Amino acid sequence: MKKFSDIIGQKAIIEHLYNALRTGSISHAYILSGDAGSGRKTIASIFAAALQCENLQAENIQTKNRQAENPEPCGKCLSCMQAESGNQPDIITVTHAKPNSIGIDEIRRMRADLQIRPYANAHKIYIVPDAEKLTVQAQNALLKTLEEPPEYAVILLIANGVSTFLPTILSRCVVLQTRAVEENQIAEYLQREKGLSSEQAKVLARFSGGNPGQALLLVDDRDFLELRDNTVGFLTRIARVDAQQISEFSSGIDPARRDAFLTFLMMWFRDVLLYRSAQESENLIFKEDIQYIIEAAGLLGYGQLGEILDQIDAAARRLKSNVAADAVFEILLLKIREEYRRRTA
Questions:
Q1: pLDDT of amino acid 96
Q2: How confident is the model at residue 68 (pLDDT cuts 50, 70, 90)?
Q3: Predicted TM-score (pTM) above 0.85
Q4: Are 115 and 249 in a shared domain?
């Protein structure tokens, strides 16, 4: 069973929920807001399991000083095992028939069910994914529950943001906003839990945009990893390729990966610039390709590297202007090759 300590980042949210569990000051409604993949659903599930954990409740009753440790679901009691399997009778996930909205009927059914006391636990918890899709009518129906909730009710709204919520809803909920996670934390997690090399983990962490879920998706994305290998392989020999090879490589870039390709180029030449400046590899992303980084740093001066990075920026702008991508990449790679050859001539 996952625990709060397994969550990457989100310290402020986790400490808030730890404190609620320690003190027993549980709100009747929370909004967990943030991007998909940021940990919102996992945090909600852990919090729900902890609220219902039989051993944790027993500890709280027996322990006078609840501040002694961080309360986590035990993962061993019947309630925790039911929660992990999705069969905990007092943890209910609210579903909706229409893909783009949660209507008043779903909330009315939840409110009717809420009148029934918990089956065997201290709380009755409702998890509402996609809560940003609640219609105005559904929110008004929910508001009636939030104004006079049963003492055992806890409602966890999971949303991409809070802009669609009525002010009256926001005023009656504790809003917990997930934040971007530092790249080094994501990279360390990928190395530890997924067995990735330092370079692989750093690359995926950089592309994740601070979103652990996105990084985990990229772990199993073979096309993404193939693009990385092909790009690095091409860059290691770019000074020696001919125009035909550049044209063929450019036309073979997946249209869905064009931005990723440019980001790989930017990361590679920033590594080259960093090594040329500091003569050390500790902070490089492509550390496993250090021999090629060293070679490029010896071939390219600061002026050439600055020109290459400027050309990559210019290529990104041209793509946004709907210029033919193959031509953009071909011109870019020819200019990069020119900088190599100008330095080595």
A1: 84
A2: very low
A3: no
A4: no
